[in-house]
Amino acid sequence: MAKNADNQVSAVRKAKHGWVLTLFFSVLTVFYIYPIFLVLINAFKKKGFITKEPFALPSERSFFALKNFVNGIEKTNFFAAVGNSVIITVGSVLVIVICTSMCAWYITRVKNKLTSTVYTLCLFSMIVPFQMVMFSLSKLANMMRLSNPIGIIVVYLGFGAGLAVFMFCGFVKSIPLEIEEAAMIDGCTPIQTFFQVVFPIMKPTTITVSILQAMWIWNDYLLPYLVLDLKKYKTVPIVIQYLKGGYGAVDWGTMMAMLVLAIIPIIIFYIACQKYIIEGVVAGAVKG
Fold this sequence. Notes:
mainly alpha, single chain, 14 helices, 76% helix, MetI-like fold
């Protein structure tokens, strides 16, 4: 009886703590979502009302319909920037996933000083601040003629390899070696074994890496700004920044509208794939 009473008291306490945590994280969620809500409502206001009434909902006097979106698209050549961002994001994610997954498989299965050194360097690249190498990187990229949407993919491969290799290595350790041995006995070459046997098993981590890299690359401003030839190529974050005029003048209505258009694709992509993130991270944490 005493044990049952203790269990009931413990359950009540856990329930109370659960409500407290739920309330706390609900309030925290509102704080995170509210800035996005402000951007959305101000995208439909006239310029003067955004500075005077930034927290108010659009009214009959302030409502500007879709004119901010039209003006922003015309001023920034937005669709060309979207095309550049899509090429860079999709190309970089594909290259990162393919190259780092193969690298992680080789590092995990072949144990020697070379693979240990490569793995250490990949981990080291995760902790080196970008600001330490950005000027030398931009100079090197210019010398190697990487200042275009295709060339910058090579740069993103270098910066995205650390996290991707780390996650893939954790997952490969959970794959039974007997599966690969059976494939080789059946006549598969190492390349065939990887792409026909190992890579399909990596699906959870592959999707997780793709989501994380895509969100980073699509929203990145500094690296394209330093590397790309801005007279020819601009990404979405860069063209939005160009809406800022001289002496700090900003067309807030147009900028808010362009921000909404910029975040819609990546939000849709994230919502569609979010269930795979935790699955991939947990799978990568399991060691065989």
